[in-house]
Specification:
27% of the residues lie in helices and 25% in strands. With 248 residues, it is α+β, with helices and mostly antiparallel strands. Helix 1 crosses helix 2. It is globular and about 45 Å long. 51% of the residues are buried. The protein binds magnesium ion (2 copies). The site of one magnesium ion (MG) has 5 residues, from strand 5.
Amino acid sequence: MITIKSEYEIELMKKAGAIVGNTHHYLEQFIKPGITTLELNNLARDYIIKSGATPSFENLYGFPGTICISVNDEVVHGIPGNRKLKDGDIVKLDIGACYKGYHGDSAWSYPVGNVDDKVKYLLEHTQKALFEGLKEVKPGNRIGDIGAAIEEYATKHNLGVVKELVGHGIGTEVHQDPDVPNYGKRGTGPLLKEGMTIAVEPMLNYGTADIYQLDDDWTIVTADYEPSAHFEHTIVVTKDGYMILTKR
Ligand code: MG
Ligand code: MG
C-alpha cells in the first residue's frame, strides 16, 4: 500500500533525513586511504546515535553492519570489515537513520584519494542520472517516468543499469511500496501524489549491468568486476515537484 504522509510525518522525515545527510557530511572527512570500512561504520554508528536517531540498517533483514559500505565492483550491501580503502578506490556509503519512528535513506559514492578518469566518469554520470530521475517527480507523473529518465540518461552514457535492485517508498519502514525501478516506460506505474515519500537510487555500472551475490549472502558485485556507483536521496513529493529530505 502506498501511503501519503501527513505534515507532521513529513516533519519527522525531514529530521531523519537531515541526520542521514549530516552523517554523510561528517564521514566525508575520514574517507582516505588506510581507513577500514569497519572504522567508517563505527563512526557512522556513533554519529547517528548522538544525533538522537537509530541506525535503520542494523539487523534489517539480518544485516550485520550499521551502514552498507561497498567498494569498487561491489554494487550495494557491502558488509563493513577490515578492508582498508586504497588510493583510487570508489567507496559507496549507504546510510539509514530512524527518528521517532520515521526513516531517511541515502547512498553516496565517494572517490578515495586520486581516482582515474573511468571512476570520475562513472561518479559524474551516476549522480546526474539521479537528478534526471528526480526532475520527473511531481504530482501527476508516474513512477515509470522516473525510471525511464534514469535509464535513458544511463544508456546515453553507456552505463549499465542494475535492474535487480530498485528504489522504494519509505516512511515508518525503510522499504515500503511502491518499488521505484531505475528503468521503465513513461506514463506507467503508480501515480505520484503530494505527500508520497520515496527513495530514488540509481545503481549504474561502468560495464555490464549484470551482477551476482557473493558467498557472504549480502554483497552484490558486478559480473565483470568493473566499478559501480550508487547515488540515493529520500524525497517527498510536493505540490509542484519534490523536496530532498537527505540533503548533505
Ligand atoms: Mg540506501
Ligand atoms: Mg534505499
